[in-house]
Amino acid sequence: HGTGRTGGCGGVFQRPVSAWHEHAERAGALVSGTLLREPRLVADFVLTGDDGRPFTRADLAGRWTVVFVGYTHCADVCPTTLSHLKAARSRLGGEGERLTVLFVSVDPERDTPDSLRRYVRYFDQGFRAATGTVEALTALGRQLGFVFFRNSAADGEGYGIDHSAELMLLDPKVRLVGYLIPPFRIEALAADFETILGKRVAP
User: Fold this and answer.
1) Residue 110 burial (CB < 10 Å; 0-12/13-18/19+)?
2) What is this structure's pTM?
3) Which of 141, 134, 58, 72 is nearest to 103 (CA)?
């Protein structure tokens, strides 16, 4: 899935930055990433939301969504990214309410709906979270372009999870329209959120 980068979540993966810059110049992109030339419709899926209820494609319809993959036991990359997302969204004022931040946990063994709810609400009361079976998460990953791998901790105690680091952008028709790539800067994220919120959604 591109180059690897070591991070506090075990490891995170991101595409080569040079390749993103070249593509961005051709496609006319965002500050932190790029928009796809053709949006990709996301097929239906079933996860479990942070309220314990089924979380499906229908829950994302009608709003712009930023999807971030991680897990609650992540030491630094995940909390840092969520903090950046909160700060960037807050800079939009009332407009920020039109943007959903969805944290998808790839650690269903430890991340229960209750723990996910408490985790994301710590950063922002408006953030949402979901998880699912490994099979459901893998299938969604194939649609959105993220990967994750479980690995044993160096001391033999517990485990970590390597996962993709990009943010995935979904439009109100629940189509994948682009990616934002790390390292993330609050100002750049806020500018990109303003850009996508100002876009008219093609039929």
Assistant:
1) middle
2) 0.86
3) 72
